[in-house]
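User: Second chain of the day. Same drill as before.
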Amino acid sequence: MNSEPEPVLEGQVTSRPAALDELARRLAAQPVLGRGAVGVSLLQPLGDLDAILVRAQRHFAGLAEQKHEVPSGAEWLLDNYYLIQQVVRQVRQDLPEGFYRQLPVLADKPFAGPR
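Assistant: Same format as last time:
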């Protein structure tokens, strides 16, 4: 029997709110080794993701301008792109590089952090 915690996927948390509570309890029960996830940063992957979103937004906006059919997910992106950009700016502002050095390092990592 595998004792590794089952990763909680976003869809599971959304469809099963109890899954988020369960994950929080498991994380809270983990022994803390110390502070400072050195070398871990959300800002680099966030920048990479932001660049991908900018390219996607431009691509689908171009298709829409040329009167081509745009998938419904792309329509959502075009309609809500300003909100996504607000969140990216907020994360950059509220989660500076030093933030991760303040977080506890758990003895058993139940899931991989930002890549």
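Residues 1-6, 8-12 have pLDDT under 50 and may be disordered.

User: Great, on to the next one.
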